[in-house]
Amino acid sequence: MTHMLQRVIGPVIVIGFMVVIVQFLRATAPEPEMVEAKRSPIGVYVERAKAVATSASITVYGEVRPRVEIELLSEVGGRIKSVSPEFIEGGLVNAGEAILTLEDDDYRVRVAEARARVASNHLALEQAKADADVAKKQLANEPNPSELALKIPQIQQAEAALSAANVALESAETDLERTRMTLPFDVRVAKTMVDEGQYLTPGRAVASVFSIDVAEVRLPLSDSDLSALGVPIGYQAADNGLAVNFSADVAGKEQSWQGSLMRVDASIEAATRTVFATAEVRRPYEIDDGGMPMAPGLFVKATVNGRALNNVLEISAAGLRAGDRVFVMTDSDDLQIKAVDVAYANTDYAYIRGGLSENERVIVSPIRNPVTGMPLTAIETTDGSMADAS
């Protein structure tokens, strides 16, 4: 029993002794020195906000089309007697110039016959008037003579016959003029469908032509595009409209043309939720040396100058964050997050109307987990010049 007690008490004494030693070491250990962790500043690219006066502009794309594109139809029948040398694909036919001419002998005969009928009916009218004068004198003493006795219905009949003869003459002369097919504006021929010697019936298509006085471009506009231009849906230009610069690569060289945005459709396209505007370029085929015409079918880039932006601050587009926020580096070299009023923004710049001051340092580089007050340091800007620093 005594031996068992000794085996138990020994380890207990050892453990108790070790606990006393540990407590003694804790009580006599020095207090750890409390040192505040130092935050390392984050390097950022900055640019200063600068005051500018500019205008909003948008860039959209569209296909060129002629203002007028029609199929030319024959209004009378007959055999084609001659065609213009420009009656070919791509040919230029000026206003009033005959595109083709039909044989007109039959139509000249009809005009001559119509003129003879006019002369005959004119004679009949004069005869009826003379007869009426005689009847009036003969019946001067008769009480209440009838209109028939006074030859009044005969005069009315002769006048109606003469009027009908004049209308028939005008119709015959019109048909004669229509044997010479012309247009009231300059055109280019897109496609020919007949040729010399062929017989035409009324209503037969002879060519597809398009006008060259004005070229049009249909431009799709989003809601933000409308805001940048400052025009409403259904806009109609009073004078020259908004300035538009068109460009496209043609024959391996960039070509440009100047035009105007003249109108905006009055409805929104349901499928794309966009509204289309129409821009015009006048005299697209009048070009300088080395230039190219703005031909139908050409796909062009259009830069439209919109509303004026006065008293705004310009910053790089990279400086505008989601939710219309801007990260600013303060004079104390720490981060400040500001909500701003954006007047307009494109892929290159953002224009701020409020919430930012001129010459403030705007951060244009990414920041992970931004927190107001975090320390910053300005590093070299993307163009190689040193960023502004306090």
Can you tag this structure with a few keywords?
alpha+beta, 36% strand, conserved putative lor/sdh protein from methanococcus maripaludis s2 fold, OB fold (Dihydrolipoamide Acetyltransferase, E2P), elongated, Elongation Factor Tu (Ef-tu), domain 3, 4 domains, 390 residues, 23 strands, 6-stranded antiparallel beta barrel, disordered C terminus, 5-stranded antiparallel sheet
How is this structure best described in words?
This protein is an alpha+beta fold and 390 residues long. It has 4 domains: 44-54 and 310-378, conserved putative lor/sdh protein from methanococcus maripaludis s2 fold (Beta Barrel); 58-66 and 211-308, Elongation Factor Tu (Ef-tu), domain 3; 70-102 and 182-209, OB fold (Dihydrolipoamide Acetyltransferase, E2P), CATH 2.40.50.100; 104-178, Helix Hairpins (Orthogonal Bundle), CATH 1.10.287. Helices cover 24% and strands 36% of the residues. It has a 6-stranded antiparallel β-barrel. Strand 18 (325-329) and strand 19 (335-339) form a beta hairpin. The radius of gyration is 46 Å and the shape is elongated. Residues 382-390 have low confidence and may be disordered.
